[in-house]
Amino acid sequence: MTQAVAIDTVLRALSDPTRRAVFERVVRSEMNVAELTRVSGVTQGAVSQHLKLLRQAGLVSERPQGRNIFYRARPEGLAPLFDWLSHYDAFWRERFADLGALLKEIDP
CB neighbours of 37 closer than 8 A, spacing ≥ 6? Predict the structure, then answer.
């Protein structure tokens, strides 16, 4: 998967508020579909679809246990997003450095 495609996939997966809420829940604790359905306020089918997209984006993994499948977050799935955002780190550092210099000029 190219970097641009990976970023697009992660952003698309996290663009839906319900899917983000499902992801945030599995970040805190490993859960199965029944547990996620109970706390999400949407149908089991909808939760399953959200989990499928999160899995395809590399943001969650599954662990079968008997008849249940438990989902947990894969923090490394956020790497493409962090890499993309890191390009803006230099931009903001320069701006804050410029602001610091300007403030010293104004009020030595």
Answer: 43, 44, 47
The CATH number covering residue 19 comes to: 1.10.10.10
The values of phi and psi at residue 57, to 5°, are -80, -5
Give the structural domain span for 11. Answer: 3-106
Confidence of residue 27 (pLDDT cuts 50, 70, 90): very high
Burial class of residue 107 in the structure, from the number of CB atoms within 10 Å of its CB (0-12 exposed, 13-18 middle, 19+ buried): exposed
Contact 34, 44 (CB under 8 A): yes
Structural domains in the chain (count) = 1
What predicted TM-score, i.e. pTM, was given to this entire model?
Answer: 0.78
As a whole number of angstroms, the longest Cα–Cα distance in the chain is 69
Counting other chains too, the contacts that 36-39 makes at CB distance below 8 Å and 24 or more residues apart are 36/71
DSSP assignments along 13-50, one per residue: HHSSHHHHHHHHHHHHS-EEHHHHHHHHSS-HHHHHHH
